[in-house]
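Re: duplicated header lines in exported structure tokens

Our pipeline writes sequence and tokens for each protein into one text file. With two proteins the header for the second block appears twice in some exports. Here is an export where it did not happen, for reference. First protein block:
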Amino acid sequence: MSGVSRQRGFTLVEMMIAVTISLLIMVAVLTLYLNLRRTSDDMAQTNALIENGRFAVGLLQEDLAHAGFWNGHVPQFDNLSASKEPGDYPTALPPVCSAFSAWTQQDRVNAIGIVVQTYSGVPPGCSGIVTNLASNSDVLVVRHVDTCSPGVGNCDPVAVGKVYFQASFCDDDIPPSNPSPETTPYPVVLDTTGFTLHQRNCTSQAELRKLVVDLYYVRDYAVAAGDGIPTLMRSSFDLSGGVTPANALQPAVPLIEGIEAFRVELGVDSLSKTGEALNYSAPPDWADPVTRTTVKNRGDGSPDGPFVHCGAASCTRDDLANVVEARLYVLARTRTQTPGYSSDKTYALGGTTLGPFTDGYKRHLFTSSATLVNVSRRRQTP
């Protein structure tokens, strides 16, 4: 029997050692996986934070770049070729949230002349639109007309009942009682009907452009009240009903989650190129009427003095009628907390500082400037 081999299995001790080693390897692999997963999730949150902040700033910049676009029409108070006292300088702040049916003719003139308004609280009459305003959020209102022609590209075709803007470029459209185009502004229409104005050839009908009014603010929740995710909101002027009257700002819709604070400061063109105060109760006063390179009582398109932050009641009429630039401050944060994260950073949003925060959320401040090119460029002279 000496030629027969014996077979042996693992002893209990050997089995226990193997199991222990296997468990240790599994724990190490699981720990590595969890660390990689946490790192990946943290990177994804940080990337989303940066993307959301940049998207918010870019969106606001684009809308502000269009502010004051009236499809070729230049308000008389900004028309340096005028030869009489302008008759369309705003007399008061235009309405923000009221239905268009309640606008007077002067309200319409004021809305064309004041294309940006900001508030540090809920604007008067807007409590049904601006709801759950975050504690560190301004309210921004931007006005212009569509940058595309109705029915062309992504622009909706003309719809009965919506508010459109039409400007005349034809001398024949000027009322006979004021026949001089040099001293009389070409007429405009901001309404739902009555579009009879013409192009420069005085034969073709002048183009209609839909009125655009956008209101931005930060709400203190995203989907359900109390969810704690601050969100950039936008309300737009439109015909559809909802809970507001037709042709008014409609209920705000969420745009970008994780926007925690929003502040706007305005650059006001309050001095002429010669350093004199603006005066709209007289025609443009040229230092040299022949060369017309320097006008003494109109702005030069550049902000003067410190930028202005509007309070709960907004800024003055004269400030807002002469805004040529805006500084944007957007504080974005991650949607969820990062365990163990703490920071002693503070964030300067113009004239206010936020932080430090110890709540576990990562944050990043985005700042940028937006020039109101449609206002500033028409004031510039060679």
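Second protein block, exported in the same file:
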Amino acid sequence: MKNTMLKYQIHIIGLAMLLLPFLGRAQHGVSYNQFGQLKNTFNNSLSTMDEHGSFSVLGRRQWVGVDGAPKSVWASGNVKLRPIDMSVGVDFKQSSLGVVKESEATAFIAKAVRISEDEYLSLSMGGGLIYFQGNYNQLDGGDPSFRDNIRETNGILSISTSFYRKDRFYAGISIPRLSLIRDKNREYEFRNIYYATAGFLFQLDDAFHVRPSVLFTKKDDRDMQFDLSALVFMGKKIGLGMGLQSQGDLSALMQLNFGDFGLGYSYQFSPKSTTVNQRISNNTHEVGLRYRIGGIGML
């Protein structure tokens, strides 16, 4: 039993060491590689770009096969309420690392106003709850350092705005998490998160389109980070591209569109990083699925 616990502790310590460059990305501030395709999850006001509604889910897994490895899931959905010409939706996020887990659930409402023949200004507002769970005594109940577990709950508000032209471009800013309680004496403090995002769709010819996207992420007491990506679509059905993150990580991206569905995959890696155990890979896999009523698009 002691050997099993010691092995588990070594794994957790190793994971923590590997995570040091990414600590600023904890707490759902993590920037998923497929932000260009799943833009609604980063800025709820962009849900008004979907005429009838959409649903998306994204799973992210790092160090596959290692107990306690980082993993997360992000689900978002919205529908159009035609009587009031507004979109309503929900978001659910969960991430975990070892014995630590964070969950978040919010609901929002969004409204778009046409400011020209084909350009719109959109605004969304919402709120929900966030919950932190740290089961530290699972590491070693006899060690005073791991004796106490932590449970924290907080209410949050969300607000976002965007400017877009359907099937051409979008740009927006959002605060998906604005904590209602700010108390430094709490055992765990939830940081506010801010996003700025933009995407464009350029037609090269009848068969090829290119979609560059950018996402800026800022959290309280952390430096701003950025993510860049670009996909080239062939026949509007298959997209291939690359992504770059501010800490130097690269990602290979693939997007398949068929009917109302879009299936995405990304493989993220760091050219400069090494691990404490050569049998452990620090590469990251993402799988995303999006359903859009009326047909999936490239933007």
